[in-house]
Amino acid sequence: MASLRSIAAVAALLTNSVNAVAPPVVKRAVPALAQVINQKAFNVIPTVPPAEEFNASSPPWTPLNFTAAALKEKPFHVYDDEFLDIIGPNPTFTILAETPKDPIFHEAVVWYKKKDEMFFVQNAGNPDAGTGLNKSAAIYKISLKQADAVKNTRNAVGKVDVTLVKASFEVPNPNGAFQYKGQILIAAEGSGPKIEPALIVMNPEPPYNTTVLLNNFFGRQFNSLNDLSINPRNLDIYFTDPTYGLSNNFRPAAGMPTQVYRFNDRTGAVTVAADGFIMPNGITFSPGGKYAYVTDTGMWRNGLELLNPSSIYRFTVQEDGTFEDRKTFAFTDTNIPDGVHCDSKGNVYAGVGDGVHVYNPSGKLLGKIYTGRTAANFQFASDGRLVIMGETQLYYATIAARGDFVEEYL
Ligand SMILES: *[C@@H]1O[C@H](CO)[C@@H](O)[C@H](O)[C@H]1NC(C)=O
Ligand SMILES: *[C@@H]1O[C@H](CO)[C@@H](O)[C@H](O)[C@H]1NC(C)=O
Ligand SMILES: *[C@@H]1O[C@H](CO)[C@@H](O)[C@H](O)[C@H]1NC(C)=O
Ligand SMILES: *[C@@H]1O[C@H](CO)[C@@H](O)[C@H](O)[C@H]1NC(C)=O
């Protein structure tokens, strides 16, 4: 027997379908910290500035009718319904730490599973970093247990310890990191003409001792190693070598093309996996290792060069570990895509000029975890916990998606 109320509801539905209004873009419930960005709303805007006025770096462009503050207030930006599955019903977002000036939350974010800690670094990449061991060769860590305890507060500055674990030219200008058989493998950019770039293994426990794994290509210095990843299928180490050491005045002129290399640490073989980049930067593999994603941040080489890529490229990794089928996967809308990582379903996350952008495996932008500032890199711990670098701010987000790891190397 229908109640009056349900009859009224049916009547309202009928009325609505008769006076059909445009359907809302997202029909599902949107979590409290999320907001929908309707891309159709800015397909046509009143004023479209020419390139010489549009500043592709910072501050980030705000879509029509949004303010920077509104974008930050609800940092999960839903560009596509699929993003709701990624963030789940109750994502959280917290500022964990902040510095007045020193960009200590910069790069090489890596999870140490045994102690549930996240390591990250400051290097001399940003002029604010200045010089000196504490600035250009500084490795820090936080406890994720402490981060979990404050995840439901928006601002937890002062509640989480940021611990300097090592400041030593044993790891000169660290910039990329990956789990390596219970230890941490770091891509170091080098410093000056005499301290060469290298792949260096660090013990994640005191005394944080190190062992150099590779420091040359048949006797030649690399330019300034930037980032690395291990392919889960062949366990080889793939790493990128742009010239940011030269851009930032701490390395001499480049001696080799800017390439992606492959290192088999069991046989010692070093080969080139791909070239044709301006600044090959972040690198990661899809779950299972079939695809490689490499970012090219050539738009920032020596200042802004707008004709250069700020793009993510996808390669198919063949059974023998070589790369083929270079494909332009995404061109990012805000500054450059730096660090890149996949979740366990193969969605691709990139650290960009306004936060972390998330693409599905077809390169469709699903959404952003918006920080409003450069997020050079970020990293998953298990169970959808994400630590995001923001130079002078450190963020912690929890979402439904899970990270993808080379399990036996954790
Ligand atoms: C943006 O704001 C203007 C002025 O308030 C309004 O006329 C317009 O409809 C809004 N556009 C969208 C897409 O909401
Ligand atoms: C872009 O904006 C930033 C910050 O407002 C400024 O420092 C930079 O010089 C601008 N770049 C260009 C090319 O206008
Ligand atoms: C480097 O950092 C450590 C730990 O904070 C501090 O004790 C030391 O004085 C710093 N050294 C320099 C040269 O700033
Ligand atoms: C650190 O030192 C220990 C004890 O000598 C050694 O077993 C370990 O392999 C070293 N780790 C690194 C990364 O050098």
Keywords:
410 residues; mainly beta; 6-stranded mixed sheet; 4-stranded antiparallel sheet; 6 helices; 26 strands; disordered N terminus; binds 2-acetamido-2-deoxy-beta-D-glucopyranose; SGL; signal
Structure, explained:
With 410 residues, this protein is mostly beta strands. 10% of the residues lie in helices and 34% in strands. The chain contains six helices and 26 strands. The protein has helices at 4-18, 68-73, 82-87, 133-136, 144-149, 244-247, and strands at residues 34-36, 76-78, 92-98, 107-112, 117-122, 138-143, 163-167, 174-180, 183-188, 198-202, 210-214, 228-230, 237-241, 259-263, 270-274, 280-285, 291-296, 311-317, 323-331, 340-342, 348-352, 355-359, 365-370, 378-381, 385-390, 393-398. The chain has a six-stranded mixed sheet with strand order 1-2-23-22-21-20. Strands 3-26-25-24 form a four-stranded antiparallel sheet, with no helix packed on it. Strands 4-5-6-7 form a four-stranded antiparallel sheet. Helix 2 (68-73) links the parallel strand 1 and strand 2. It is globular, with a radius of gyration of 22 Å. The termini are far apart. 46% of the residues are buried. One 2-acetamido-2-deoxy-beta-D-glucopyranose (NAG) is lined by residues 55, 57-58, 304. Keywords: Signal. Residues 143-380 form the SMP-30/Gluconolactonase/LRE-like region domain. Residues 1-20 form the signal peptide.
How do you describe this structure in short?
The protein has helices spanning 4-18, 68-73, 82-87, 133-136, 144-149, 244-247; strands at residues 34-36, 76-78, 92-98, 107-112, 117-122, 138-143, 163-167, 174-180, 183-188, 198-202, 210-214, 228-230, 237-241, 259-263, 270-274, 280-285, 291-296, 311-317, 323-331, 340-342, 348-352, 355-359, 365-370, 378-381, 385-390, 393-398. The protein is mostly beta strands. One 2-acetamido-2-deoxy-beta-D-glucopyranose binds next to strand 7.
